[in-house]
Amino acid sequence: MTSSVTTLLPATERALLTSVATAQSTGRSPSLVAGVARDGQLAWTGGCPETDGFRPAQTQYRMGSITKTFTAVLVLRLRDEGLLDLDDPVERHLPGTGLGPVTIAQLLGHGGGLRAESPGPWWERTPGTLRPGLADVLGEGPIHPAGRRFHYSNPGYTVLGSLVEAVRGVPWEEALRTGILQPLGLTRTGLRPEAPAAEGWAVHPWADVLLPEPCADLGLMTPAGGLWSTVTDLCRFAVFLAEGDDRVLGASSVREMRTPSTPAENGEWDSAYGLGLQVVRADGRTLAGHSGSLPGFLAGLWFSVEDRIAAVALANATSGPAVPAVAADLVRIVAEAEPPLPAPWKPLAGVDPELLALTGPWYWGTYTYALRLLPGRALELQPLKGSGRGARFTPEQDGTWTGQNGYHAGETLRVVRREDGSVRHLDVGSFVFTREPYEPGAGVPGGVDAEGWRGFPDPSQG
């Protein structure tokens, strides 16, 4: 029923299998398979029920909307190659959509105001020949102002698939194969099932009987939800989304994908959407990934960058098991049972005395901060108490540093020196940090009272 590729503790594997088996049984799914990757490697696969010839790691299931993440990767590749800008109106590259000023980024984050579904018959259960053109997919166009709210849109990702074809000059399927599947070695992912593949079923809500679901060629809608894959391939894809791969997208681009891009709905502050990736808070950790469903299939893919763990779960039922929740639970199980070891501390290979001299306490007004020197001449400025405006800074060629996170992300840190070369203060986006609180002569905005610090007057002295 299970197979380990890298070692997990037996108790951890038992807990993973229990989660999968419980979901399959209580959710009444004909089958449910799952996989876990840790530290970039497949660590566990399992499935239920155990039958002759059942191959959980290699059996294909339809992934539904996880397909959107593949489409988003293809669009980000075009951006990274300089073939488009995410702030470009879609019409610039795909004329005739009628979307006006709606941008590529807005479609990626479901912020373009488009309808949730295409007009006409239920697109997930009918052939794509019923929707031969984008006009048949988009209907009457946007229903919300662009950029103002999150509104999940399958037609939006259909447009993005057509955008990939228009800019790349090849069918979406070919762009997918050469841009993602081949570089990452996803040999069991594609538009059509290849044995062994699960059959999609509907389970009667009041009886333990099954009805086969139709498996239609979705045509233009395929980039929104039509791919088949396995837990093995999707775990490898999740590792790529967490770490990046320069053959497809670099680390900064996949980090951009999991950065929230559209305002969340009221009451959904623990859930957001980036560029083709959902971002949620679960069990005290941040997970990125995507859920998916099509008639006959349910899917979930989540990864935790901090824990270096990813999990995938797939089922062949229209409804029943909470498959995305199963994938999130598998991440939690491994993270709690076998937390990652911290990276070993190592001394810096070399040190610049001038940078070393900058380390230590600094004051923004009366707030106490500490500046630390990191590898690669990077700096970290953090408050010594509380949760103030700390950040990491990476060096630039002009002798400044650029903030990478927090309040100072994108802001510039400068070392301001006196005429004799000594350090006067640090400037971070106009905030002046001095060696002493409100240090005289250190360039504190507004100046420093000439009488300096003083005690409160003693009222007994009249």
TrEMBL record:
Membrane-spanning parts: none
Domain called Beta-lactamase-related: residue spans? 25-335
User: What organism does this protein naturally occur in?
Assistant: Streptomyces clavuligerus
Classification of source organism = Bacteria, Bacillati, Actinomycetota, Actinomycetes, Kitasatosporales
Specify where the region named Disordered lies, as residue ranges.
Answer: 440-462
Which superkingdom, per the lineage? Bacteria
What range(s) does the DUF7586 domain occupy? 351-435
Mind telling me which InterPro entries this protein's record contains?
AmpC-like, Beta-lactam-related, Beta-lactam/transpept-like, DUF7586
Protein's name in the database: Beta-lactamase
